Amino acid sequence: MASTGMNISLGSKVAIITGAASGFGKAIAKAFLHAGAKVVACDINASMLEECHKELSPLGALHMVVADISLHDSAPNLVKEAVDHYGKLDILVNNAGIMDRFDPIGDIDIDFWDCVITTNLTAPARMSKYAVQEFLRHGEAAGTTAAGSNRGVIMNVGSINGFRGGCGGVAYVSAKHALVGLTRNTASSYSSKGIRCNIIMPGAMKTNIRVAYKDGFNEEGGAICQKLAEVNPGEVNLDRLGKLVAFACSDDTDYLNGAIISADHGWQAI
Ligand SMILES: NC(=O)c1ccc[n+]([C@@H]2O[C@H](COP(=O)([O-])OP(=O)(O)OC[C@H]3O[C@@H](n4cnc5c(N)ncnc54)[C@H](O)[C@@H]3O)[C@@H](O)[C@H]2O)c1
From which residue to which does any coiled coil extend (predicted)? Predict the structure, then answer.
């Protein structure tokens, strides 16, 4: 079949991608570099980030930053790093995330709840706060302030767990549901100022995320989730989904704002 010839263009864009050393974040970084973006790739895992740099740096402008996004200063520092290194910031992809261990509320260790909520919800909120401030500052300096002026884009990485209750533990499910709220409030608050915010909701992907629950897996919670796993139509291809994120962050989708984008072969629809 003939190709549609559709090109994804992020030329001249500067993007921060969190959790870029592995899995989905790495696939997004690859798609962004192929589309011409300059990428600031952040991850807590220094050795994986180093490996990722070796693999992806031939594709384009890539700046690696080892950072733990759950720490207070990481968000302002990362935004500053993008501006210092590439002169501006256009796109933030809040991808970094950790899984819980399928604990329901009666079993959850509240310190572990705090850890999952901090990484999966508070950190994206903090990153968004400083990114939005930079989008607004840069837009005003450039004299571009209206709706559709492409001042900045945030893509949050949600999950089927942002739609469904029985697919993960209470901490992960709560964080991913709340991320939808963060997305929609951000979209509605800044749509008239040329800033967009969307959320992608992947189904199952082959990544390293399951390492988190190797120890301390809640058998009862896991068995409940297994029922939904049994009707999963299939795994989502990382590289193809990375391309969708790149397209959704490009100026060609300047109409896309507050969108909750399912990407799960129809799993959440069941
Ligand atoms: N794998 C799946 O089936 C699946 C499904 C739906 C959604 N997701 C979401 O996709 C996103 C990416 O996860 P993945 O599946 O690629 O997992 P992954 O474990 O392969 O990658 C996550 C990356 O985030 C990094 N990270 C974790 N905590 C961090 C922190 N505090 N600071 C900086 N970096 C940190 C990790 O080091 C890792 O490189 C997550 O938000 C996850 O919830 C995954």
Answer: none
- Span 168-204, pLDDT tens digits: 999 999 999 999 999 999 999 999 999 999 999 999 9
For the CA of 209, the nearest atom of ligand 1: 19
Task: Please give the positions annotated as active site.
Answer: 172, 176
Nearest-atom number in ligand 1 for the CA of 206 is 1
CATH of domain 14-207+214-269: 3.40.50.720
Distance 167 CA to ligand 1 centre (A): 16
The residue contributing the CA closest to ligand 1 atom 24 is: 19
| Type of residue found at 193 | K
At 30 the pLDDT is 98
Among residues 107, 102, 115, 47, the alpha carbon closest in space to that of 215 is found at: 102
Structural domain boundaries in the chain: 14-207+214-269
**Number of alpha helices (DSSP H) and beta strands (DSSP E) in the chain:** 8, 7
Q: How much distance in Å is there from the Cα of 26 to the middle of ligand 1?
A: 10
Residue 260's DSSP bridge partners are: 199
In the chain the beta strands, taken as DSSP E runs, fall at 14-18, 38-43, 62-66, 91-94, 152-157, 195-202, 260-263
Q: What pLDDT digit, counting tens, does each position of 47-68 carry? A: 999 999 999 999 999 999 999 9
Mutational test site, ligand 1, from 98, 114, 174, 236, max ligand atoms within 8 Å of CB: 98
How much is the average pLDDT of 79-88?
Answer: 98
